Amino acid sequence: MGKTIIVSNRLPVNITKKEGQLLYKSSAGGLATGLGSIYKEGDNVWIGWPGLSIKKEKEKQTVTAELKKENMQPVFLSKAEIRDFYEGFSNGTLWPNFHYFNQYAIYEQDLWESYKTVNYKFCLEILKVAEEGDTIWVHDYQLLLLPEMLREKLPNISIGFFQHIPFPSYEVFRLLPWRKEILFGMLGADLVGFHTYDDMRHFLSSASRLIGKSNSQGQIPMDNRYVVVDSFPMGIDYDKYAESAASEEALERETKYRTGLGDHKIIICIDRLDYSKGIPQRLEAFELFLQKYPEYKENVSILMIVVPSRDQVEKYKELKEEIDELVGRINGRFGRITWTPIYYFYRSFPLKALSAFYKIADVALVTPMRDGMNLVCKEYIASKIDKKGVLILSEMAGASKELSDAILINPNDINEVVSAIHQALNMPEEEQIRHMTIMQQSIKKYNIHHWVNLFMDRLNEIKGKQKSLATKKLDKESFQMIKNRYDKAQKRLIYLDYDGTLTPFSDEPQKAAPGDELLEILQQLTADPLNRIVIISGRDRHTLENWLGHLDVDFICEHGVWLKEKTNSWNMIEKLTDHWKQEILPILELYVSRTPGSLIETKDYSLVWHYRKVETGLGELRTRELSSHLKYISANMNLQVLEGDMVVEIKNSGVNKGRAATAWLEKFPADFVMALGDDWTDEDTFKAMPDNAITVKVGSSSSAARFNVVSYKEVRKFLSQIVELNTVSQ
Ligand code: GDG
Prior knowledge:
Elements: E1 4-10, E2 13-18, E3 21-26, H1 30-39, E4 45-49, H2 57-68, E5 72-74, H3 79-98, H4 109-127, E6 135-139, H5 146-153, E7 158-162, H6 170-173, H7 179-186, E8 191-194, H8 197-211, E9 219-222, E10 225-231, H9 238-246, H10 248-261, E11 265-272, H11 279-292, E12 300-307, H12 314-334, E13 342-345, H13 351-360, E14 363-366, H14 376-383, E15 390-394, E16 407-409, H15 414-425, H16 429-445, H17 448-469, E17 472-473, H18 476-488, E18 492-496, H19 509-512, H20 516-527, E19 531-536, H21 541-548, E20 554-557, E21 562-564, E22 571-572, H22 580-594, E23 599-602, E24 606-610, H23 618-633, E25 639-643, E26 647-652, H24 657-667, E27 672-677, H25 680-688, E28 694-698, E29 707-709, H26 712-722
Parallel strand pairs: 1-4, 1-6, 4-5, 6-7, 7-8, 8-10, 11-12, 11-14, 12-13, 14-15, 15-16, 17-29, 18-19, 18-27, 19-20, 27-28, 28-29
Antiparallel strand pairs: 2-3, 9-10, 20-21, 21-22, 23-24, 24-26, 25-26
Helix pairs in contact: 1-17, 3-4, 4-5, 7-8, 9-14, 10-13, 11-12, 11-15, 22-23, 24-25
This protein binds GDP-alpha-D-glucose.
GDP-alpha-D-glucose binds next to strand 11, strand 12, helix 13 and helix 14.
């Protein structure tokens, strides 16, 4: 078992300088707690920026040595890097774009350059300790390019990536000038995780539409591996919050705060200073609430904690001023000597104080305009030991997908927020307890430890699967092994797929026709009396016979419907009918008329709907509609509906290349069996082959084949070397 390397922008430590002395304090954040069980073990390590800029070499060495004791390794950033990479590109470009505040996003080439440089700096730091066999878990939007950088250096290492903030819809993401590099950067990972299904599908849609990487059930095929994209809603350390709420200190503080606040109802709001959190909008809703329901004056107050954050960034300074002004206005307008509408604190509090705040709050008002998850609402639930309290939660927070027992609101709808506050303040206790119990059960179960285990287990599982599917590059050594076996063999059976394997893939028949080079190779292969060459293709039999019929080859055409041994006549694998075409053809024609760019190919015993030239996205959408339409109609017709590479094919059940290939194996036993193919239909052939067969996949996606080559050109070179022909162009 290799070690695990956690990577995030910030290390889980706070280092401050007091009178020239460096002081270290570990962070108690949710992520640090959850990952504590990992990075503190054995050789495992957490790599990141320690949070302050250090110039002196000697001081860097001291910090490095000190952090090493805690299994941490620092990446030192200069002041310029913090400005351009962190405040600039991460928080000034990516953060607003990903939170649907694109009007705030800065597009500056220099910031992007710094982002790339710092991601690479992280990569180099990781390479100091990473080895094949290790697992690297990269966190969040500051390091989107890192997975690809690591993949280039360590091709087989296991890499997980988790994004803590939303992934925006394609329409928003595509506005970024560097969108393609970002997607490729993330796809360097083996597992890409988001908090919600919506983030995940937005990412998949961008990958498909912007860089042509389509997916099947969340799996994206890449060079020689596939990337899994999935949702992993993050939880909190439930017990920590429940225990803190029950502690003596929290109890004492609760009594103290209660006395100070008086006995009216309390609404709690806790956020980092950020425009994504909807703080001004929430204050305006509270103002309208007091106006609409004057009977609540002196009966309810907001306790609002805003934790200072990014206050060097202009937009955040403006936001702080806006909040200060709004609080002043509302308190000035409604406040009385005996009552303050909003208690506002611009600072952070220790956990025990937070627990006391959560406990005394009758309502938690959590109204972000966008939030990847939002942990505050989960912490409020965990702190409610007596189960009394109401959560008002924005639909735009990832947490809303799990917490349907909260009062869910659209934060842009001020009237809905006002009604929700009214409803929450009037909710009967039994109802509060009922909802809170359900939410607690869920938050307790799906806690931070559950989240960490789920992600890590999935990553391990993927790596294991990838290893079992990995094809080996057909290198010199493998070639020699194949050539030796070929030369020694008494009888050889060789299956060759046509399009994409022997010739380049093309929709135009003249481009797909065999040229002199290919014909020469096939002639040499068939000239050897020990060889039996089978052309096994999805193409119609007439075209293939026309092109290759003069050679001494066998044919398996239309994916195994039509069979022909050398000069014999054509046979069908079984008695098939094509009556079904009359019923299916009009459906396909309907889809052609609805989908510009699509077309129908008619074969003897199958129909194919092609959508290669259809607008990206529309083709995939129609495919899903068409497939379910056809599956419903064809249920009793003994047909199969197959979704392939930009095609949907309908054919008789039980017909595939594998079945036909098996018939040949039985009829023509051989001590050297080899199959070459490039697409999903050839996987059936590979799977039908005996264990000792040589199977070669053209292309780099994962396959049941033992070896892979890059293109049809390499196939030609390989075959000509096998038959010792020297005329093939290099
Ligand atoms: C990002 C995503 C996602 C707040 N005030 C105090 C204090 N806090 C703690 C809370 C909570 C944390 O800060 C805030 O977490 P959130 O999840 O609400 O928001 P972000 O900081 O924006 O986090 C977010 C998260 O990553 C995890 O993936 O949920 O969507 O934006 O834990 O308790 N802690 C202390 N004193 C305070 O005054 N001790």
